[in-house]
Amino acid sequence: MSSSSTTLTAPTSTPSIAVAELDSSPNASPVAASSASSSTSSTAVASTGSGTGTDGSSGATASSSITPNGIKAGVAGFPDIVNTNKAALDQYAPYISWYSDYWPNTTDFTSGTKTVKGIGMLWGNGDLNETDPTAPIGTAAADDKNRYAAYTDLPASPAPDYMMGFYEPDWPAPYSSNMNAPTAATAWKATLGKLGNTLVGSPSMATQMDETWLTPFMEALGVTEPPWDYTCIHTNKNTSDGVKADVGYYWTKYGKPVWVSEFACVNDKSWTMCDQDTVNTFIPEVVDFFEKNASVIAYGYSNGAGLGSVWPLINSTTGKLTSSGNCYLDVLQGKVSSGQACTN
């Protein structure tokens, strides 16, 4: 699910003033020492792990107390992956700590002795407007209602460890939650704003570093500081500099740790997909940046709609990893480093 599937002009971006602060040095940008406004979850442990260095060796990786099990890497936006693509997820399980599937009740996934954390999300407010000419086709409206109902059905105890905020409320349906800031603020107060023992993520923006939605959202909430523990961002770029610009914008503007809840290789000015050669160098470069940059606490390879035939991790016909899926796996395993290209 991605805003890219709409027929509207894709979001674009301009250069970030913060890129200089966000190079891939492990200590290039500060770590929010105490970023959580709510209680720290039992599974979010503070750690300093090892990331893929530019020379193929392991380099220091600063992990926030929010990073699930101290491992930043994950896979994002994969509905029902634990049932439809279990074999593929098994391959990633030793090297990732989390996955998401757009639902608030995402379950943990066990592969051998490794448990991958299911990260919940409150996708929308359960009220996509079916009479809106921009909006829902297919099952989007029903999915939104069902996801909201699943959220309200969550038990009060134990509280979920994590919950991501609304999915691209700044972009029209059907593949984004399409809410204005006051409507979203009302929904937030009734739901995510009441989660006292959960690490809560911000709403994610389709418009990336060009967003103008979060500040009015905060104003509608009546707050001057972000009411979330980490900022969820989507970055759809075809260069690592573009990715750094997106991260730099959110870190500088909102001052919260950045959870890259989706990243993909896309020319976002024309919404054209990267070819395999570009993907094969893009993945090593951006993973190296995510691992070494202290303001990034987690990142997930996007599997949303509208990302073409090269980027998806898994072949929908065979269920096996694609060339891009194997590239991501090779990078997470330390077989390919920044400055190198995947060859599968």
UniProtKB/TrEMBL annotation:
<feature type="domain" description="Asl1-like glycosyl hydrolase catalytic">
    <location>
        <begin position="86"/>
        <end position="328"/>
    </location>
</feature>
<dbReference type="GO" id="GO:0009277">
    <property type="term" value="C:fungal-type cell wall"/>
</dbReference>
<dbReference type="InterPro" id="IPR053183">
    <property type="entry name" value="ASL1"/>
</dbReference>
<dbReference type="InterPro" id="IPR017853">
    <property type="entry name" value="GH"/>
</dbReference>
<feature type="compositionally biased region" description="Low complexity">
    <location>
        <begin position="1"/>
        <end position="16"/>
    </location>
</feature>
<dbReference type="GO" id="GO:0071966">
    <property type="term" value="P:fungal-type cell wall polysaccharide metabolic process"/>
</dbReference>
<feature type="compositionally biased region" description="Low complexity">
    <location>
        <begin position="23"/>
        <end position="49"/>
    </location>
</feature>
<feature type="region of interest" description="Disordered">
    <location>
        <begin position="1"/>
        <end position="66"/>
    </location>
</feature>
<protein>
    <recommendedName>
        <fullName>Asl1-like glycosyl hydrolase catalytic domain-containing protein</fullName>
    </recommendedName>
</protein>
<dbReference type="Pfam" id="PF11790">
    <property type="entry name" value="Glyco_hydro_cc"/>
</dbReference>
<dbReference type="InterPro" id="IPR024655">
    <property type="entry name" value="Asl1_glyco_hydro_catalytic"/>
</dbReference>
